[in-house]
Amino acid sequence: MEITNAAVRTWVENMARLTHPDQIVWLNGSDEEYRQLLAEGVRSHALIELNQHKHPGCYLHRSHPSDVARTEQCTFICTPSKDDAGPTNNWMAPEKAYATLRKLFNGIMRGRTMYVVPYLMGPKGSPFSKVGIELTDSVYVALNMRIMTRMGDVALEHLGGSTQFIKGLHSVGTLDPQNRYICHFPQDLTIYSINSGYGGNALLSKKCFALRIASWLGRQEGWLAEHMLIMGVEDPKGKITYIAAAFPSACGKTNLAMLQPPAEFQGYRIWCVGDDIAWLRPGPDGRLYAINPEAGFFGVAPGTSWKTNPNMMRTIAKNTLFTNVGMAPDKTVWWEGLDLLADTGGFVDWQGKLWDPTSGQKAAHPNSRFTTPIKQCPVYSPTWEDSQGVPISAILFGCRRSKLVPLVYEAFSWAHGVYLGATLNSETTAAAAGATGVVRRDPMAMLPFCGYNMADYFAHWLEVGKQLTNPPKTFRVNWFRVNDQGQFIWPGFGENLRIIRWIIDRCQDRGEALKTPIGYLPTPEALGSEESGISSEGWETLLGIDRGGWLDAARRQTEFFEKFGVRLPAALWEERQALIDRLKSWPLAARPSAEAGAPAVAVEQRWGG
Ligand code: GTP
Ligand code: SPV
Ligand code: MN
């Protein structure tokens, strides 16, 4: 296809003048081109061809051991004013960032190929879709972009003569962690990323564009870019209810988005629209509509198995790129949690070293991943192509908390839901470099992904809610409570449908709930406690409320809220105070953990509703 868009041509020429590639290859997105890129990947040792009999179309990539996850300390929002980036983002002045990065990019592609990767985020022809162009010297990144986005001519066709496209310049550089930068210039719709080839650092469509730049655009244009899965839940009568859910990285979005209903859920079907990112906007009917801008899954490998996520196992059976997993001598892949191995002779770990299972070292890196097309998912939802998106009935904010936070509870209102999202706390995971298992504040699961001041972001959420005459109900969920032995109490995965069923009941004004100071809680019976196999002590932990713990938690929010100064919407302070007041006036006798089966109305009367 001839490149007629002058703005695109000029920008690519300018970036080529800066980086000096030996050659420039414009990608059109064809199957033939994809095969050539794979061949180039194998030739240049970026890829290892896997057993084509057992894994047709699949390849393995090993990233540099210092480059295995997003690096948040190297990620910057470069707005003209520091306040516009806000206290939760790293900030660098745009002039300084451009100067630093231009120096690093200068001549960096000598001896390399620059791939020009046009891509479309969202359905073809949708008014909500947006175009990006990534320039990269990594064939691995180019291949991933082919799976993760609608890549090639389709994007340039959608763009037409428009100058509004997101400019992304990426180089693996020297992979020097000391000079690694992922810089965002929202005001210029520009992203510069250097010295990493991994995931969200390098696939600029994903976190850099579809969340950081898009959240900034969404604020101006009246919509939301969120770290959310989108799923349809079909009930036995054939009615499909759509849900969006924000969980921090590696906290269960991909798994929930395509869950396999347990046997007793006869007639239920799950439809996966997306597993990581949702763009949401108010529709003409006062409901909130969501599209998934992506076209593939970049999913966590460890823990994925026939038992936990059979739909993903089917999805990744072919045409999948694996990154940093272990490999058997017959060139099949393996990771922790997959299945027990009879024989580990000749296995190599994610770095290609002979693996000794008794060493305590993991075969697969904890953040090892697969890149695979959404259309291969057996429960792929055709609404993925729907240019208006799907109407969302419920929004879930999920966290990974071994203590305090119940399995599920419902907010009293949109503003209360925004407060539940804004105060989300979760234990860190291997998806980002740094310590794991540390509780940190991760508002709306967007801490690393919000492209502007989070106080303004909360205000924007509240504003969007005002435009919805029929807003989604909002919920907090936590699959990760542990017992004294440190084991998960809740079985999770497919069993999460029990929670989803209650949530849908609540959206249809059914479903039994207890009104408590923190929100509406289900009774164990409403979740199908008889079939769940969980003991009554288990249920007490999962659905109990620790009043002292919640009062402490509310107090600890002060420090977080104060970071934002006067920019923080008053509504959040009010929600916090209201929670404290409800907790203080709550008669201990009415605690649902003590009398889990009590009818909702009785509890309400006792603490004054
Ligand atoms: P990102 O791709 O990083 O945004 O992660 P994600 O939110 O999509 O998380 P994912 O579904 O990939 O799950 C991350 C890890 O949590 C995997 O190891 C899963 O096996 C595990 N996990 C997912 N759902 C559950 C659950 O319901 N219970 C338990 N115990 N573990 C879960
Ligand atoms: C996450 O960390 O939330 C991911 C993986 O989805 S990455 O693409 O690396 O951001
Ligand atoms: Mn994610």
Please, what is the average pLDDT? 95
* CATH architecture name of the largest domain: Alpha-Beta Complex
Number of helices: 18
Q: So what's the CATH class of the largest domain? A: Alpha Beta
How does this structure look, described?
Helices cover 29% and strands 21% of the residues. The protein is of the alpha/beta class and 609 residues long. The chain has two domains: 6-47 and 68-221, Phosphoenolpyruvate Carboxykinase, domain 1 (3-Layer(aba) Sandwich), CATH 3.40.449; 226-296 and 382-594, Phosphoenolpyruvate Carboxykinase, domain 3 (Alpha-Beta Complex). Helix 11 (414-422) packs antiparallel against helix 12. Residues 593-609 have low confidence and may be disordered. The protein binds guanosine-5'-triphosphate, sulfopyruvate and manganese (II) ion (MN). Residues 70, 199-200, 206-207, 249, 276, 298, 431 line the site of sulfopyruvate (SPV).
Descriptive terms for the model:
609 residues; alpha/beta; Phosphoenolpyruvate Carboxykinase, domain 1; Phosphoenolpyruvate Carboxykinase, domain 3; 2 domains; 9-stranded mixed β-sheet; 18 helices; 29 strands; 29% helix; globular; disordered C terminus; binds guanosine-5'-triphosphate; binds sulfopyruvate; binds manganese (II) ion
Question: What's this, in brief?
Answer:
With 609 residues, this protein is of the alpha/beta class.
